[in-house]
Structure prediction request, 284 residues.
Amino acid sequence: MITAGTRLIALLGHPVDHSLSPLLQNAALQVHGVPAVYLAFDVPPARLPDAVQGLRALGAAGANVTLPHKQAVIPLLDALDAEAERIGAVNTIVNRQGQFVGYNTDAPGFLAALHSRWKGDLSSAAVLLLGAGGAARAGAAALMGQGVKELLIWNRTGRKAAALCQACEAWGPGSCRVVPSEELAQAAGRVDILVNATSAGLAAGASNPEIKELEQLDDIYRQDLFVMDLRYGTRTLAQTVAERGVQAMDGWEMLVRQAGMSFALWTGLQAPLDQMRAAVQGAA
Ligand code: NDP
Prediction:
């Protein structure tokens, strides 16, 4: 029930109309009877300072920040959690007695999801990461922070892979290398984990894969490879390779885990992950 004591938790992004966060967070708030409501706001980049100032004026309990604001919001905050500072991106703001503190739950959400299914040791693992956008950045920061032995990054636009690889140097001691398209199949053939952090389909149908460089990867899906596709709500690589007996997971668990971690930061309560999963089941 919304009363005069109900507090606001906002999502700031541009666009936000397809976000599943309101479903996830309002389900969690209801399970625990937290007197707060979670609402999404489409905020173009030029209005971000006003929006954050507005949340301060309204005494909002906190916020999520999504594309394209995850880095631009940092100078607008009072303090950063160590993980957000290390990664240089914020997806969660907590109002701590009037101080807006920035956190990052994308990277730990990625890790929690990965470890929910893959039981190996990252310090002896080689990972091939496809993509160099926001999701890839969270994955790379998480993997480097865990001391992954070797991170290989491939991206359609090579210079973005090079920039992400450079950022990786500050995130952990492991080695990072850009993989050019002509070496992609060879790289995929020897890694322990393959992460698809692109928004493209992979081998959705053998006759019409959306990433042409990956057509040749059809043969390399080995039984000892683990595939994590961060996409959800569409036919993912995870489904395609799982049908061939390769261990795989899609992006639903990461989505729920990062949301659960944000919920815990705002409320101090353990996130009701099962109810959150149920809230978005079949939603996308
Ligand atoms: P960005 O727009 O930041 O990055 C998109 C990435 O996909 C870039 O690396 C881009 O390459 C690549 N890409 C896009 N189209 C193609 C194509 N046709 N062929 C090859 N590469 C392509 O998006 P995000 O990083 O935010 O999101 C990426 C995916 O991850 C999305 O599907 C999103 O839904 C999912 N995601 C999942 C989350 C979860 O919690 N599970 C969280 C966040 C995102 P280039 O640089 O060349 O343009």
